[in-house]
Amino acid sequence: MERVEAEQKLVELRVEHRDLDEVITRLAETVDLNEVQLRRLKKRKLALKDQIAKLESAMVPNIIA
User: Fold this and answer.
1) Per residue in 36-61, pLDDT tens?
2) Is 61 helix (H, G, I), strand (E, B) or coil?
3) Does 65 map to a domain?
């Protein structure tokens, strides 16, 4: 994956992660709390966080000390 593509993907993942965070916060504040839906959203958010970390790691060049 080229650097520009990786950076664009990283931006997209961060936006989706932030949006999910907002949805989770709003859902948790509702009276009719749907635990299953909340759990699924949290799992998706965690998966996005893992993808972001993996992409960030891949973008950092390996430096031999």
Assistant:
1) 999 999 999 999 999 999 999 888 87
2) coil
3) no
How many Cα neighbours within 13 Å face the side chain of 64? Answer: 0
Q: Is the residue at 53 inside a domain?
A: yes
Structure tokens at 48: 């996005």
Residues 6+ apart with CB under 8 A from 19: none
DSSP 38-58: HHHHHHHHHHHHHHHHHHHHH
- Would you say 59 and 3 are in contact if contact means Cβ atoms under 8 Å apart? yes
Biggest CA–CA distance in the chain, Å, is 55
Could you tell me if residue 64 is inside a domain? no
DSSP-derived letter for residue 1 is: -
Q: Which residue has the tokens 């839906």?
A: 37
Domain carrying residue 23: 3-59
